[in-house]
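Read as amino acids, tokens; as here:

___
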Amino acid sequence: MKNYDNFLFDLYGTLIDIRTNEDDDKLWNTIRILYGYEGAEYSNTELKEMYHKFVQEEKADVKRRFEDREYIDIDLGKVFKKLFIYKKVDDISESKIKHIAATFRSVSTSLIELYDGVYELLDYLKENNKKIILLSNAQSLFTLNEIKMFGLDKYFDDVFISSDYEICKPDKEYFMIPIKKYDLDPDKTVMIGNDYISDMSGAAKANLHGIYIHQDISTPILDEEKIIADYKIMDGDFRKIKEFIER
């Protein structure tokens, strides 16, 4: 078995195959109706425009607070809240924001499923007492629900989601958060992901090992030689990860 004790996993495109479309008219009409139910009246066009405006405002705020941070993320919960405030709706509970976010995600998602072999690998790592950590560029409002939906929460020793930290891969400092928290040995830690920039280049900057798996939703690759990884799976066969680790 390979000399890895700690496994950092990307989520979307690595463990979960997902397809979303946030430009779908049905999405914005559904969200418009939900806001209308609460007294925040929008047209579909205005809602979409203000959503994107508030996203940019949140990004600017993060950049202002972290001037040296190259790769940032925001919490979309703040955007959904601003859409209420803009229409002078003050009764904004956390449960209301979670409901809006869950609806937004579910309506915009056309496909979501685990890749074949995910449970098999995670069971194998658990049986061998390996530390399993999620390190994802994602939104907690979406991702925590989807982790639970597939029962993945029982496998992870910890979960790190970029929206909670306002930083994302491939920033080295994002990788260092779990490394420092658990005092992980980089030489015994491997990042498994489907993005050769965010996952593999970022892991390399943090002196971690890498296992790359190319999927349909991965960033296109013009030169395979540029992928920094201990092992590359270019045909998307997730089961090959376990085969590699067992050698």
Remarks:
- The two ends are 5 Å apart (CA to CA).
- The longest helix spans residues 44-65.
- The mean pLDDT is 97.
